[in-house]
Fold Sodium:calcium antiporter.
Amino acid sequence: MSDYLLLLAGVASAAIGGEFFVRGAVGIASVLRIAPSIIGVTIAAFATSSPELSVAVNSGLAGKSQLSLGDALGSNIVNISLVLGITLLIAGIPVGSDVLKRDMPVAVLAPLLTGILLIDGIIDRLEGLFMFAIFVAWMATTVKQALKERAPSNSKVAVTKRFLPWVHVFAGLLLLVAAGRLIVLSTTGIAKDFGIDDFIIGATLVAFGTSVPELASTVLAKIKGHDEIGVGTVVGSNIFNSLFIVAVAAIIRPIRVPLTEVVPAILFGILSLLIALPRRGTGWVRRRQGVLLVLMYSIYVTTLFFFSR
């Protein structure tokens, strides 16, 4: 019973935290004079990936880095197939050219790199450092572009209005991180009662729990008309998960997982991203693509459990 109460508390925290976070993220973009999509793929993506980072550190120290890998890869699929899919069921979403050109290729290639490194069944510390270096290069490119495209300064903005968005974001993040943690604890406890494998728990229930911040912030961003923050958060979070989170886990403790167990998560992750690409010449991801993405997630979970037998 306590696990189910934790689950309900996590959902409530996600809803309230998402509201504060979206409000603050829009305000910060205005104060810093940068595009909201940049906030999405950097600050928002890093913040909403903090539950995955917590799982990576704790599972690595406990000698269960495979749980972190399952969480990272599974979260990527949840982010695109479920989070973006559910958001698209509300209405179509426009995707900026900067996200398509700078971020989408990295988001697609990162899980592919994970698969290549796992051909020998292990991602060691050196390979983890290599992944981390790629992440740093992408982040540097993103920050450089953000600084280059800053809007003219507006010195008339009151000090309180400059400070308040940071308060909203901080409060929202605390609630979102708490939500992810509560849902991870509750779903993991329920799953372990049924004797489910660590990687499978990580790739399904833990992945869903740690993706609650993305789900809450993306859906609320859509409802409030700030699509660029939602899309940026989802794509950026995938990059953080695939390069930064997996790298941290491997550096702490080499990740040993059979490639056959990871292949479904990698393939479904890449396929979901390809389905989510805007149709040529439109710049929009349509509602029918959202239906396909949600269906894709259902097939993924079924396939994962089939391969784990």
Notes: The longest strand covers residues 93-94. Residues 2-307 form a domain with the A middle domain of Talin 1 fold (CATH 1.20.1420.30). The mean pLDDT is 78. The two ends are 29 Å apart (CA to CA).
